Amino acid sequence: MNDNDPGIERCGACANTSSSLMKCSGCRLVSYCGKVCQANDWSHHKQLCKEKKKADREVMLFQNQEGNHLGECPICLLPLLFDADRIMEAEDEECYHFMGEMTHSPCCWTVVCTKCFDAHIITACKEQKKPTCPFCRCKTPDTEKSTDELLELSADQDNNPTLLMKVGAMQYRKGNHGAAFTSYKKAAKLGDAQGMYFVSTMLHCGIGVTMNHGKAAAYVIKAAAGGHPIARYEAGMDELCRGNTVRAVKHFCIAASQGVTKSLEELKNGYRSGYVTKSEYEQALRSNQTAKEAMKDNEETRQQMLAESKRNVTFHYK
C-alpha cells in the first residue's frame, strides 16, 4: 500500500504507516500509533504543539464577532440587549450583576428577552389562561424562588450556567461575595462569558477572593473571546498598559463594533499618537454606529410586538 494513498498517515515517533493513527489533540498536526509513541516524541513535538495552539487561540480571539455573548432570544430571534455603555456608566455596581432586559423561568432556565416574556403573559391573560413559561410552556410558580431554594437547585444542577449565574447574583446582593465568586466560577468553567467576566472583576478588585491581577487578566481574555463587549474593551486596556498597541487596537476595534463607545475614545487617542491608522479609526466609527442602530432597531421591533399584544386585552384569569 502506497504511503501517499488517501487516509494513510505516518507516525511522528516510530514512522509506521497506518490508516488508524490518532492525531495529537493539542495541534491536530502530527499523528501517533498511541500514547506510548506520543510520549516518546513529546520532547521534539512540544514546541510545535504549543506554537500551533497559541496561533489557534489568537485566531479565535481576534476573529470578527457579531452581537454579544448573550446571543439571541429563542422566541423573537433578535439579539438579547446588552447596553455596554449604560452598564459602564452606571454608578450602582449591582447593574453588572442584574440584567434587566432578559428573564427566565425556573423550569427550563432558558433566557428570553423581557418583551417576549411580557407578550406571552399578556396573551395568556387575553385567553384567560394562567401564564406558563414562554419557552417550554410548563406551568410556572406564582412566586420567585427563594435563595435557599435556588441553592438547593444549584446543588442538583451544577451544570446549569444560567442557574449558577442567578445564584451568584443573589449571593452578591446579600453580601456573600465568597459564595457569589464560587457560583460565578462554576458558570465560567461551563463556558459562560458573563461568569468569566464577573470572576475577572472580583479577582481584580479582591472581592470575595484574594486579589490576583494575573488570573483576572486571563479571565478577561476568555470572556472577550466569548463575545463579552466590556471584557473586550478591558482586554484592550490591559494590552495598552503593557505597551502592546497592535493587540490593543484589535481589541478596541472589535469592542467598538459591539457598541462600546469608550473604545472609540481610545482609538482616537491612538490616532493622535500615531499607532492607529485613519482607516482603522474610520472603520471603527462606522461599525460602532451600525451596532447602535441595530440595537435601536431591535428594541423598536420588540416594542411593536409588545404593543400588538397589548391591544384589546382584558387582564383577568379563569
Q: Can you describe this structure?
A:
It is built from twelve helices and six strands. By secondary structure, it is mostly helical. Among the domains are: 36 residues, no CATH class; 76 residues, no CATH class. The chain has a two-stranded antiparallel sheet. A two-stranded antiparallel sheet has the order 3-4. α10 packs antiparallel against α11. The longest helix has 33 residues. The relative contact order is 0.09. The N terminus is likely disordered.
If you average the pLDDT, what whole number results?
83
Strand content: under 5%
What's the helix-strand series? EEEEHHEEHHHHHHHHHH
Query: Strands of the largest sheet, in order across it?
Result: 1-2
> Percent of residues in helical segments?
55-70%
Q: Outline the low-pLDDT stretches.
A: 1-5
Structural class: mainly alpha
CA(first)-CA(last) distance = 76 Å
Largest sheet: 2 strands, antiparallel
Radius of gyration: 24 Å
DSSP helix count? 12
* Overall shape: globular
| Beta-strand segment tally | 6
Oligomer: single chain
Keywords:
two-stranded antiparallel ribbon, single chain, 318 residues, disordered N terminus, two-stranded antiparallel sheet, mainly alpha, 6 strands
Write the topology of this structure.
Blueprint: E1 9-10, E2 17-18, E3 22-23, E4 31-32, H1 35-61, H2 84-89, E5 102-103, E6 112-113, H3 114-126, H4 147-156, H5 161-173, H6 177-189, H7 193-205, H8 213-225, H9 229-241, H10 245-257, H11 261-273, H12 278-310
Antiparallel strand pairs: 1-2, 3-4, 5-6
Helix pairs in contact: 3-12, 4-5, 5-6, 6-7, 7-8, 8-9, 9-10, 10-11, 10-12, 11-12
